[in-house]
Specification:
- With 256 residues, the chain is α/β, with parallel strands linked by helices.
- It has two domains: 1-81 and 167-256, Rossmann fold (3-Layer(aba) Sandwich), CATH 3.40.50; 91-166, no CATH class.
- The protein contains eleven helices and ten strands.
- The strands form two sheets. It has a six-stranded mixed beta sheet, with helices on both faces. Strands 2-1-4-5 form a four-stranded antiparallel beta sheet, covered by helices on one side.
- Helix 3 crosses helix 5, helix 5 crosses helix 6 and helix 6 packs parallel to helix 7.
């Protein structure tokens, strides 16, 4: 099996008079945490939208596990195991923590669209649900309504729900956005833990997070790839420092 799980070739998205993603060649290695970084407006989230086919590329190809998936629909891509967790916490607020993760697992039981079925079949999933909650430090909160969780714990729940869908490639969009320092530390450690034996592609603004857990980093600026490498390489790259002018550049260099 190829060491590359995901590759884009000349991936481009043009809107009227504006190129949001410009000829991006991305190569994500199996088993890596790969970070996509760049200043605001660099095209990171648009890139994610293209990979999951929430947007159609203007040009270019997306290859997953050696198969060209450029023409596939979002549901087909999700079934291949490309699963995305969103910037804004995407949980069902009025269901419990356990019920949220159980919904993620349902797609493997053939009961995905049979919500009126008896609970027995669903309760058989609960051992797997509790194991996932244990992994993200939420087992003790299994009976709580998702709405009652603190913000950082909601993001942990979202990661558990994403993992319930058994992703071959987990896409995390700004997983630490809007968090206080303690939550950032907790979620960073959580991502590192759940990434063992998996592949993660993440968009992340926090350079301390990126420096701590990313195996490889692709830097975007104005929709194009500016640099690629490990943290030491990209944080010293003159074009990257220029793109991150001022205080952001200082943070980039001082994150280690």
């Amino acid at each position: 099996m190829s060491e590359l799980i995901l590759e884009t070739r000349g991936l481009t998205k043009e809107f009227k008079g504006f190129t949001a993603v410009d000829g991006v060649d991305l190569r994500v290695q199996r088993g890596h945490i790969h970070a996509l970084i760049g200043p605001n407006g660099a095209g990171k989230t648009t890139c994610f939208n293209l990979l999951t086919k929430f947007l159609e590329p203007t040009r270019g190809a997306i290859v997953f596990n050696g198969v060209d998936i450029t023409g596939e629909k979002p549901a087909q891509i999700a079934r291949r195991g490309v699963i995305r967790s969103f910037q804004i916490s995407a949980v069902f607020p009025h269901l419990t923590v356990l019920e949220n993760v159980r919904i993620g697992l349902q797609r493997f039981t053939g009961t995905s669209f049979h919500f009126w079925k008896g609970l027995t079949a669903l309760q058989q999933l609960d051992a797997r649900v509790l194991a996932l909650l244990e992994l993200v430090d939420l087992r003790e909160m299994a009976a709580l309504k998702a709405a009652d969780l603190p913000y950082g714990r909601k993001r942990a729940l979202e990661i558990a729900t994403t993992m319930a869908m058994e992703p071959a490639l987990m896409l995390l969009d700004e997983p630490t956005q809007g968090m206080g320092h303690e939550d950032v530390e907790r979620v960073t450690d959580l991502i590192k833990r759940v990434a063992e034996g998996r592949t993660v592609l993440m968009v992340e603004h926090n350079m301390r997070v990126v420096s701590k857990i990313a195996d490889r980093i692709t830097v975007l600026a104005r929709g194009a790839v500016l640099a690629e490498g490990d943290y030491n390489e990209v944080s010293k790259h003159p074009a990257v420092l220029e793109a991150y002018m001022g205080s952001e550049a200082t943070e980039l260099q001082g994150a280690h």
